[in-house]
Amino acid sequence: FTDYGTGLGACGVTNNDQDYICAVSKLLFDTFPAPGGNPNLNEICGRKIHATYKGKTVTVTVTDRCEACAVHDLDFAPAAFDQIGSRDEGRLHGMTVSIFYSSTLSK
């Protein structure tokens, strides 16, 4: 689990570094349906993920797709990453994750 620079994501929403958002791997993102092939409408967009690391939990919203991530990797916006770890650590290993299957994203 890493942090990344935000901006316009694959879900069609522009975010900033203070948002509690994440990108999922393209391998996971692409398994969800996208009506008409439009990634902005992908069914994983807007889903909430609860991530826990060393007793700290953060809830993020899926708004992007990570090209370089392994299937279970997540990239967090800096503010979300800072809630559970230090960016000095770089990658966080051993995080537990729950994905909730209702989308809350509004565009």
Write up what this structure looks like:
- This is RlpA-like protein double-psi beta-barrel domain-containing protein.
- It comes from Melampsora larici-populina (strain 98AG31 / pathotype 3-4-7) (Poplar leaf rust fungus).
- It holds the Pfam family DPBB_1.
- By secondary structure, the chain is mainly beta.
- The chain has one domain: Barwin-like endoglucanases (Beta Barrel), CATH 2.40.40.
- The chain contains 2 helices and 6 strands.
- Strand 3 and strand 4 form a beta hairpin.
- The N and C termini lie far apart (26 Å).
- The mean pLDDT is 87.
List keywords for this structure.
single chain, about 110 residues, mainly beta, Barwin-like endoglucanases, 6-stranded mixed sheet, 6 strands, about 10% helix, about 35% strand
Quick description:
The protein has 107 residues and is mostly beta strands. It is built from 2 helices and 6 strands; from the N terminus they run ββαβββαβ. The chain has a 6-stranded mixed β-sheet.
Q: What is the fourth-level CATH superfamily?
A: RlpA-like domain
CATH fold group: Barwin-like endoglucanases
- Mean pLDDT rating: 87
Quick one: overall form? Answer: globular
Which stretches are low in confidence, meaning pLDDT under 50 for 5 or more residues running?
none
State the CATH architecture. Beta Barrel
The total of beta strands comes to 6
Return the domain count.
Answer: 1
Structural class by sheet pairing and helices: mainly beta
Can you count the helices? 2
Amount of helix: 10-25%
Strand numbers in spatial order across the main sheet:
1-5-2-4-3-6
Following the backbone from N to C, one meets helices and strands in this order, namely: EEHEEEHE
Give the termini separation. Answer: 26 Å
